[in-house]
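Whiteboard transcription, Tuesday session. T.W. wrote the C-alpha coordinates on the left side:
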Protein backbone atom coordinates (compact mmCIF):
# COMPACT_ATOMS: atom_id res chain seq x y z
CA UNK A 1 0.00 0.00 0.00
CA UNK A 2 1.41 3.43 -0.87
CA UNK A 3 2.09 5.79 2.04
CA UNK A 4 -0.64 8.42 2.35
CA UNK A 5 0.79 11.91 2.68
CA UNK A 6 -0.72 15.29 3.50
CA UNK A 7 1.81 17.75 2.07
CA UNK A 8 2.36 21.32 3.34
CA UNK A 9 4.40 23.33 0.82
CA UNK A 10 5.30 26.68 -0.79
CA UNK A 11 6.30 25.95 -4.41
CA UNK A 12 9.04 27.10 -5.24
CA UNK A 13 11.30 25.00 -7.45
CA UNK A 14 12.38 22.29 -5.02
CA UNK A 15 8.81 22.05 -3.66
CA UNK A 16 7.53 21.63 -7.25
CA UNK A 17 10.05 18.92 -8.03
CA UNK A 18 9.08 17.28 -4.72
CA UNK A 19 5.41 17.29 -5.77
CA UNK A 20 6.31 15.79 -9.15
CA UNK A 21 8.49 13.18 -7.39
CA UNK A 22 5.60 12.25 -5.11
CA UNK A 23 3.09 12.03 -7.98
CA UNK A 24 5.39 9.80 -10.02
CA UNK A 25 6.35 7.54 -7.11
CA UNK A 26 4.04 4.52 -6.75
CA UNK A 27 5.09 4.17 -3.09
CA UNK A 28 3.42 7.52 -2.28
CA UNK A 29 -0.19 8.67 -2.39
CA UNK A 30 -0.76 12.39 -1.88
CA UNK A 31 -4.18 12.84 -0.23
CA UNK A 32 -4.11 16.63 0.06
CA UNK A 33 -1.82 19.64 -0.42
CA UNK A 34 -1.76 22.69 1.86
CA UNK A 35 -0.45 25.71 -0.04
CA UNK A 36 1.19 28.54 1.91
CA UNK A 37 3.36 31.65 1.44
CA UNK A 38 7.12 31.08 1.51
CA UNK A 39 9.16 30.97 -1.68
CA UNK A 40 6.26 32.85 -3.35
CA UNK A 41 2.98 34.25 -2.04
CA UNK A 42 0.14 31.89 -1.12
CA UNK A 43 -1.96 32.60 -4.26
CA UNK A 44 1.01 31.87 -6.50
CA UNK A 45 1.85 28.71 -4.54
CA UNK A 46 -1.74 27.55 -5.09
CA UNK A 47 -1.66 28.30 -8.82
CA UNK A 48 1.63 26.44 -9.18
CA UNK A 49 0.31 23.32 -7.45
CA UNK A 50 -2.92 23.45 -9.48
CA UNK A 51 -0.85 23.67 -12.68
CA UNK A 52 1.31 20.67 -11.70
CA UNK A 53 -1.77 18.61 -10.83
CA UNK A 54 -3.48 19.51 -14.09
CA UNK A 55 -0.37 18.62 -16.09
CA UNK A 56 -0.33 15.14 -14.54
CA UNK A 57 -4.11 14.57 -14.73
CA UNK A 58 -4.27 14.61 -10.93
CA UNK A 59 -6.94 17.24 -10.38
CA UNK A 60 -8.71 14.95 -7.91
CA UNK A 61 -6.10 15.79 -5.24
CA UNK A 62 -7.57 18.42 -2.92
CA UNK A 63 -5.88 21.76 -2.28
CA UNK A 64 -6.24 23.48 1.09
CA UNK A 65 -5.59 27.18 1.65
CA UNK A 66 -2.76 27.68 4.14
CA UNK A 67 -1.12 30.73 5.71
CA UNK A 68 -0.46 33.98 3.85
CA UNK A 69 1.94 35.43 6.44
CA UNK A 70 4.00 34.23 9.40
CA UNK A 71 2.32 34.11 12.83
CA UNK A 72 3.83 37.52 13.64
CA UNK A 73 1.92 39.02 10.67
CA UNK A 74 5.13 40.58 9.34
CA UNK A 75 6.12 40.52 5.67
CA UNK A 76 8.89 38.06 4.86
CA UNK A 77 10.77 38.25 1.56
CA UNK A 78 10.17 35.88 -1.36
CA UNK A 79 13.10 34.54 -3.40
CA UNK A 80 12.53 35.19 -7.15
CA UNK A 81 16.29 35.12 -7.78
CA UNK A 82 16.30 31.43 -6.81
CA UNK A 83 12.80 30.24 -7.69
CA UNK A 84 11.71 32.70 -10.44
CA UNK A 85 8.99 35.39 -10.29
CA UNK A 86 6.22 32.76 -10.31
CA UNK A 87 8.16 30.11 -8.40
CA UNK A 88 8.66 27.73 -11.33
CA UNK A 89 11.80 29.26 -12.81
CA UNK A 90 10.98 30.58 -16.30
CA UNK A 91 7.62 28.79 -16.48
CA UNK A 92 4.40 30.77 -16.08
CA UNK A 93 1.31 28.66 -15.37
CA UNK A 94 -1.63 29.58 -17.66
CA UNK A 95 -3.79 32.37 -16.19
CA UNK A 96 -6.86 30.14 -16.61
CA UNK A 97 -5.55 27.81 -13.90
CA UNK A 98 -6.14 29.27 -10.44
CA UNK A 99 -6.70 26.27 -8.15
CA UNK A 100 -9.78 25.69 -6.05
CA UNK A 101 -9.10 25.74 -2.35
CA UNK A 102 -10.85 23.94 0.48
CA UNK A 103 -11.03 25.69 3.83
CA UNK A 104 -8.37 25.03 6.43
CA UNK A 105 -10.52 22.63 8.45
CA UNK A 106 -10.31 20.10 5.58
CA UNK A 107 -6.96 19.21 7.18
CA UNK A 108 -8.72 17.86 10.25
CA UNK A 109 -11.14 15.80 8.13
CA UNK A 110 -8.15 14.21 6.35
CA UNK A 111 -6.53 13.43 9.71
CA UNK A 112 -9.78 11.92 10.97
CA UNK A 113 -10.26 9.85 7.79
CA UNK A 114 -6.75 8.38 7.61
CA UNK A 115 -5.50 8.46 11.25
CA UNK A 116 -2.42 6.30 11.71
CA UNK A 117 -2.20 5.58 7.98
CA UNK A 118 -1.27 9.22 7.37
CA UNK A 119 1.99 11.11 7.55
CA UNK A 120 2.31 14.88 7.29
CA UNK A 121 5.25 16.21 5.29
CA UNK A 122 6.02 19.92 5.70
CA UNK A 123 8.55 21.39 3.27
CA UNK A 124 7.58 25.04 3.71
CA UNK A 125 7.51 27.68 6.43
CA UNK A 126 6.04 26.12 9.59
CA UNK A 127 3.12 28.57 9.92
CA UNK A 128 0.29 26.39 8.59
CA UNK A 129 1.40 23.35 10.59
CA UNK A 130 1.70 25.41 13.79
CA UNK A 131 -1.80 26.80 13.17
CA UNK A 132 -3.02 23.21 12.70
CA UNK A 133 -1.65 22.36 16.15
CA UNK A 134 -3.14 25.52 17.64
CA UNK A 135 -6.59 24.85 16.17
CA UNK A 136 -6.91 21.07 16.51
CA UNK A 137 -4.75 20.44 19.58
CA UNK A 138 -1.90 18.02 20.10
CA UNK A 139 -4.02 14.93 20.61
CA UNK A 140 -5.70 15.20 17.20
CA UNK A 141 -2.55 16.18 15.34
CA UNK A 142 -0.45 13.48 16.95
CA UNK A 143 -3.06 10.84 16.11
CA UNK A 144 -1.31 10.31 12.77
CA UNK A 145 1.69 8.08 12.04
CA UNK A 146 4.22 10.91 12.13
CA UNK A 147 5.76 14.06 10.65
CA UNK A 148 8.58 14.62 8.14
CA UNK A 149 9.82 18.20 8.38
CA UNK A 150 12.33 20.08 6.23
CA UNK A 151 14.07 22.74 8.28
CA UNK A 152 16.98 23.84 10.43
CA UNK A 153 20.76 23.51 10.25
CA UNK A 154 22.89 21.99 13.03
CA UNK A 155 26.60 22.75 13.32
CA UNK A 156 26.53 23.67 9.64
CA UNK A 157 25.97 27.05 7.90
CA UNK A 158 22.48 28.38 7.28
CA UNK A 159 21.22 29.34 3.82
CA UNK A 160 19.54 32.65 4.70
CA UNK A 161 21.83 33.94 7.44
CA UNK A 162 25.07 32.55 8.84
CA UNK A 163 23.09 30.28 11.17
CA UNK A 164 19.51 30.06 9.90
CA UNK A 165 17.79 27.89 7.30
CA UNK A 166 14.97 29.46 5.24
CA UNK A 167 11.96 27.54 6.57
CA UNK A 168 12.85 28.21 10.22
CA UNK A 169 13.92 31.78 9.47
CA UNK A 170 10.61 32.54 7.70
CA UNK A 171 8.51 31.90 10.81
CA UNK A 172 10.63 31.01 13.84
CA UNK A 173 7.67 31.27 16.21
CA UNK A 174 5.79 28.63 14.20
CA UNK A 175 8.82 26.36 13.86
CA UNK A 176 9.27 26.56 17.65
CA UNK A 177 5.65 25.47 18.17
CA UNK A 178 6.06 22.51 15.82
CA UNK A 179 9.34 21.44 17.47
CA UNK A 180 7.64 21.54 20.86
CA UNK A 181 4.42 19.71 19.93
CA UNK A 182 4.97 17.24 17.08
CA UNK A 183 5.42 13.61 18.20
CA UNK A 184 7.04 10.98 15.97
CA UNK A 185 8.62 13.82 14.06
CA UNK A 186 11.74 13.51 11.94
CA UNK A 187 13.61 16.64 10.96
CA UNK A 188 15.58 16.92 7.71
CA UNK A 189 17.92 19.91 8.15
CA UNK A 190 20.43 21.37 5.70
CA UNK A 191 22.99 18.88 7.08
CA UNK A 192 21.38 16.25 4.87
CA UNK A 193 19.37 18.23 2.31
CA UNK A 194 22.46 20.10 1.08
CA UNK A 195 23.60 16.63 -0.09
CA UNK A 196 20.49 16.27 -2.29
CA UNK A 197 22.55 17.54 -5.21
CA UNK A 198 21.16 16.85 -8.67
CA UNK A 199 23.37 17.60 -11.67
CA UNK A 200 22.54 18.61 -15.27
CA UNK A 201 23.73 15.13 -16.38
CA UNK A 202 21.12 13.48 -14.13
CA UNK A 203 18.42 15.73 -15.59
CA UNK A 204 19.64 14.72 -19.07
CA UNK A 205 19.21 11.09 -18.05
CA UNK A 206 15.66 11.78 -16.79
CA UNK A 207 14.45 13.40 -20.02
CA UNK A 208 16.19 10.94 -22.39
CA UNK A 209 13.01 9.00 -23.10
CA UNK A 210 9.56 10.52 -22.94
CA UNK A 211 7.53 8.69 -20.29
CA UNK A 212 5.55 11.26 -18.33
CA UNK A 213 4.07 14.76 -18.82
CA UNK A 214 6.52 16.43 -16.41
CA UNK A 215 9.64 15.70 -18.42
CA UNK A 216 8.77 18.60 -20.72
CA UNK A 217 9.16 21.17 -17.88
CA UNK A 218 11.72 19.56 -15.59
CA UNK A 219 14.78 20.74 -17.52
CA UNK A 220 13.68 24.39 -17.76
CA UNK A 221 12.80 24.52 -14.07
CA UNK A 222 16.04 22.83 -13.06
CA UNK A 223 18.27 24.98 -15.31
CA UNK A 224 16.93 28.16 -13.71
CA UNK A 225 17.60 26.81 -10.20
CA UNK A 226 21.06 25.55 -11.15
CA UNK A 227 22.01 28.92 -12.61
CA UNK A 228 20.95 30.59 -9.34
CA UNK A 229 23.01 28.13 -7.29
CA UNK A 230 26.06 28.60 -9.50
CA UNK A 231 25.99 32.29 -8.56
CA UNK A 232 25.62 31.45 -4.86
CA UNK A 233 28.24 28.69 -4.80
CA UNK A 234 30.73 29.14 -7.66
CA UNK A 235 31.88 25.79 -9.06
CA UNK A 236 28.96 23.81 -7.63
CA UNK A 237 28.23 20.71 -9.76
CA UNK A 238 24.48 20.63 -9.25
CA UNK A 239 21.70 22.05 -7.08
CA UNK A 240 20.34 20.72 -3.79
CA UNK A 241 16.69 19.65 -3.91
CA UNK A 242 15.96 20.02 -0.18
CA UNK A 243 12.26 19.27 -0.37
CA UNK A 244 12.62 16.26 -2.66
CA UNK A 245 14.98 14.65 -0.15
CA UNK A 246 12.34 15.03 2.55
CA UNK A 247 9.79 13.17 0.39
CA UNK A 248 12.45 10.57 -0.48
CA UNK A 249 12.97 10.00 3.26
CA UNK A 250 9.38 8.89 3.79
CA UNK A 251 9.88 5.69 1.83
CA UNK A 252 13.67 5.38 2.20
CA UNK A 253 14.42 6.08 5.89
CA UNK A 254 17.36 3.65 5.85
CA UNK A 255 19.39 6.05 3.69
CA UNK A 256 19.92 8.31 6.74
CA UNK A 257 21.67 8.30 10.12
CA UNK A 258 19.78 9.92 12.98
CA UNK A 259 20.14 11.41 16.46
CA UNK A 260 17.39 12.25 18.95
CA UNK A 261 17.35 15.76 20.39
CA UNK A 262 15.13 18.46 21.82
CA UNK A 263 15.13 21.34 19.33
CA UNK A 264 14.48 25.00 20.04
CA UNK A 265 14.38 27.83 17.51
CA UNK A 266 15.92 31.29 17.99
CA UNK A 267 13.33 34.08 18.09
CA UNK A 268 15.74 36.99 18.30
CA UNK A 269 15.46 39.52 15.45
CA UNK A 270 19.24 39.58 15.14
CA UNK A 271 21.67 36.79 14.32
CA UNK A 272 19.72 34.19 16.25
CA UNK A 273 16.47 34.49 14.28
CA UNK A 274 15.48 31.05 12.98
CA UNK A 275 18.61 29.35 14.26
CA UNK A 276 17.93 25.72 15.25
CA UNK A 277 19.46 24.82 18.58
CA UNK A 278 20.09 21.34 20.03
CA UNK A 279 22.46 20.13 22.72
CA UNK A 280 25.28 18.07 21.18
CA UNK A 281 27.34 17.85 24.37
CA UNK A 282 28.20 14.34 25.60
CA UNK A 283 25.77 14.78 28.50
CA UNK A 284 22.99 16.90 27.00
CA UNK A 285 20.77 18.97 29.25
CA UNK A 286 17.41 18.14 27.65
CA UNK A 287 13.87 18.58 28.88
CA UNK A 288 11.02 18.55 26.40
CA UNK A 289 9.83 16.97 23.18
CA UNK A 290 12.52 14.90 21.45
CA UNK A 291 12.67 14.87 17.68
CA UNK A 292 14.61 12.55 15.46
CA UNK A 293 17.10 14.55 13.39
CA UNK A 294 18.66 13.18 10.21
CA UNK A 295 22.33 14.21 10.24
CA UNK A 296 23.88 12.01 7.55
CA UNK A 297 22.62 10.63 4.25
CA UNK A 298 23.78 8.40 1.44
CA UNK A 299 23.60 10.93 -1.45
CA UNK A 300 24.09 8.29 -4.17
CA UNK A 301 20.99 6.43 -3.02
CA UNK A 302 19.02 9.68 -3.24
CA UNK A 303 20.31 10.60 -6.70
CA UNK A 304 19.66 7.13 -8.12
CA UNK A 305 16.13 7.02 -6.78
CA UNK A 306 15.42 10.56 -8.03
CA UNK A 307 16.48 9.71 -11.60
CA UNK A 308 14.47 6.47 -11.54
CA UNK A 309 11.26 8.04 -10.20
CA UNK A 310 11.39 11.19 -12.34
CA UNK A 311 11.78 9.18 -15.55
CA UNK A 312 8.98 6.73 -14.80
CA UNK A 313 5.45 6.80 -16.20
CA UNK A 314 2.65 8.39 -14.20
CA UNK A 315 -0.12 6.10 -13.02
CA UNK A 316 -3.46 7.71 -13.56
CA UNK A 317 -6.92 6.55 -12.56
CA UNK A 318 -8.72 9.69 -13.80
O1 LIG B 1 16.05 25.83 3.17
C1 LIG B 1 15.45 25.05 2.20
C2 LIG B 1 13.96 25.32 2.18
O2 LIG B 1 13.78 26.69 1.90
C3 LIG B 1 13.20 24.56 1.14
O3 LIG B 1 11.95 24.17 1.62
C4 LIG B 1 13.10 25.53 -0.03
O4 LIG B 1 11.90 25.38 -0.74
C5 LIG B 1 13.32 26.89 0.57
O5 LIG B 1 12.26 27.73 0.69
CA1 LIG C 1 9.94 24.63 0.38
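and on the right, the sequence the group agreed on:
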Amino acid sequence: MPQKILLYCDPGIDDSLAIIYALLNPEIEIVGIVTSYGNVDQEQATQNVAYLLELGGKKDIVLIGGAKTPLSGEFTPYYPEIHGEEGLGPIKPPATIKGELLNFDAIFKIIEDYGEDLVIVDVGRSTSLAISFNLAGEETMNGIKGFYLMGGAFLTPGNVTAGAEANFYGDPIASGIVMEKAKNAVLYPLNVTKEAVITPAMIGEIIKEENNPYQSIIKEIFDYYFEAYQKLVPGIEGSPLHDVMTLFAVTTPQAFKYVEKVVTVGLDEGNLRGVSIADFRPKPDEIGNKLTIALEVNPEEFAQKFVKVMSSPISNDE
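Someone added at the bottom: The mean pLDDT is 96.
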